Amino acid sequence: MKPRTIPTFPSHAIILLVIALFLGSCRTEPIATYSAEKRGEYAHAAVVSGHPLASQVGNDILEKGGNAVDAAVAVQFALAVVYPRAGNLGGGGFLVYRSNDGSTDALDYREKAPAAASRDMYLDSLANPVDGLSTKGHLAAGVPGTVAGLAAAHERYGKLTWEDLVQPAIELAENGFSISETEADRLNGFQEAFLAFNTNECPFIKELWQTGDLLIQSDLAASLKRIKAKKAAGFYQGETADLIVKEMQSGNGMITAEDLANYEPTWRQAITGNYDDYKIISMPPSSSGGVALLQMLGMVENAPLNEYGFHSTAATHLMVEAERRAYADRSEYLGDSDFYPVPLDSLIDENYLQYRMDDFQPDSASTSDHLTAGNFVNRKESFETTHTSIVDAEGNAVSLTTTLNSNFGCKVVVDGAGFFLNNEMDDFSIKPGTPNQFGLLGAEANAIQPGKRMLSSMTPTIIEKDGQLFMILGAPGGSTIITAVFQVFINVAEFGMPLDSAVFAPRFHHQWLPDQIWVEPTALGEEVKSELSAMGHQFRDVNRMAVIKAIQRLPDGSYLAVGDPRNPDDDVSGH
Ligand code: DON
User: Which of 438, 509, 548 most suits a substitution to test ligand 1, by most atoms within 8 Å of the C-beta?
Assistant: First the structure.
């Protein structure tokens, strides 16, 4: 791509159009104060996760001689206890791995559609989507992948015993832990939904949760003990499987004993690409994260972003236009590559990305209604949400994102087993042209089929510089995950920010449709917003977007670990 020059607008530019849509619960007060509390510098090894107790479990495992994968497995089980809104046994996720010799791997343990699922299962007789059916209650759940995924990761790379990795979570569930202010707020906020979908007693329902209350989860401890004893079979067969099936039958759910017994995670080749002297290693489909990230980086690579400056009109306009194009392609071409021929190599082909930006106008916004997915001749055959970042003392790195989708998933707790089920079915395109809960659209590539994985935006990523580990990052945050990973990396690589500033900095987001730039409070100065408006961009204020957890290897070989103040529970640990 040729470098582009983008004129800076004069401050007195006439505002042609300002359309700011203030939707639903979006608020405009500042995000939690950005502070230096969520950072740590460690000589040997580091863990960043969504909860201090989980980060501590990870560091304990590393200090016991466990490697990054051991720590990742133990942190995930701990999160299933201390971070029930997203940490899980009843969800799924993705793990990207880079060993200290530079070899890479990627594990897809995303949930799958049950065998009885069908394309129109969330539509009424008039083919209209039934409100809430794909997001709440038993029918919203996909077949969970987490336990099978963690067992597969341990089997391939683990060093400590499986029992060592599950035990800390059992203790947290059995003895209880004091809940944080955020967790108390969430549990209170979702009481009504819990009551609507759970007729039996469950430990998450209480008249009023307060900060510091003890949350004891005995049924979950028993489920974890079965997993400790029998690995994946302790979840997908026997008592836990029976409890899941019983729960499904009690609420019109679809997951059967066969669905559970048949669930397998899939090892994939990590998707890789270069940006200047960095190598990006990320997640291929069934996540869209890696593809879209490489597309956006490829579309801005040859522009002098560092000359434009952080959140300048020129840099923001260019990055927004790259984001718009990547999300348009996502909606058309991306889905589970085991079911749909995703043109992976074509989508990240340098020539294609150059062509994709051919209609980029330096001084005016594209309109999403006129800019659809790119057309290409399939150039090559395709070969094919809480986040945790970990590096161990040997330099092996894990970047892992897991989720139940919404907070507490479909809100159903498996009676007697003590964990929430996901509502990941909503990540499918339930009908062409109908947005999912993140406003994302999809097409044939992401239509529902039995056994298929729903498309994800999760972007667990590892970055090398000059052949050496440079950064580990990822985030929860639905559709905004990919643009957050993109912008944090650009903040470091182009705008020269230290990692903590790069993570704390406010962000913007464009996902093709709706055709608007989402902006966090203080993200773009008023003057820049005016200039972008004059180009035809529209804005929507949002309180906060994705929540990054990142580790950077510093020049002296030590690690800077950074959590994100957007989630007050984010915390770092290490030694
Ligand atoms: O896989 C996805 O893209 C979504 N299910 C992720 C959900 C998410 O990040 C929610 N967290 N804030």
Answer: 438
Q: In what order do the strands lie in the sheet with 92-98?
A: 266-268, 104-109, 92-98, 397-403, 386-391, 46-49, 571-574
User: CB neighbours (10 Å) of residue 252?
Assistant: 10
Strand 539-541 to strand 517-519: parallel, antiparallel, or no bridges (unpaired)? parallel
Spell out the residues 6+ positions from residue 58 whose beta carbon is closer than 8 angstroms to its own. Answer: 47, 49, 71, 72, 74, 75, 78, 388, 390, 573
Per-residue pLDDT for 6 more than 90? Answer: no
**Percent of all residues in the chain with a pLDDT value above 70, rounded to a whole number:** 92
Lowest mean pLDDT among 124-128, 326-330, 369-373: 369-373
Is the distance from the beta carbon of residue 476 to the nearest atom of ligand 1 less than 6 Å? yes
Instruction: Indicate which atom in ligand 1 lies nearest the CA of residue 288.
Output: 3
Helix (H, G, I), strand (E, B) or coil at 473: strand
Rounded-to-integer distance, Cα 241 and Cα 230, Å: 13
Total Cβ atoms within 10 A of residue 330: 28
Contact 538, 515 (CB under 8 A): yes
88 lines ligand 1 (CB under 6 A): no
Q: Tokens 């939904």, residue?
A: 193
What are the angstrom distances between the C-alpha of 487 and each of 398, 491, 497? 20, 6, 11
pTM here is 0.93
Mean pLDDT of 235-245: 98
- The rounded Å distance from CA 403 to ligand 1 centre is 6
CA 281 to centroid of ligand 1, rounded, Å: 20
Distance 427 CA to ligand 1 centre (A): 8
* Ranges of each domain in the chain: 18-267+384-446
Active site residues per annotation: 385
* pLDDT number for residue 375: 80
| Mean pLDDT within 477-488 | 98
Note the pLDDT tens digit of each residue in 268-286. Answer: 999 999 999 999 999 999 9
Cα–Cα distance for residue pair 448/436, rounded to 1 Å: 13
Q: Is the pLDDT assigned to residue 332 strictly greater than 90?
A: yes
* The pLDDT of residue 452: 98
Q: Token pair for residue 207?
A: 């008249």
DSSP-derived pairing of the beta strands 386-391 and 278-282:
unpaired
| Confidence band, pLDDT 50/70/90 cuts, at residue 377 | low
DSSP 180: P
pLDDT at 10: 28
8 A C-beta contact, residue 510 and residue 484: no
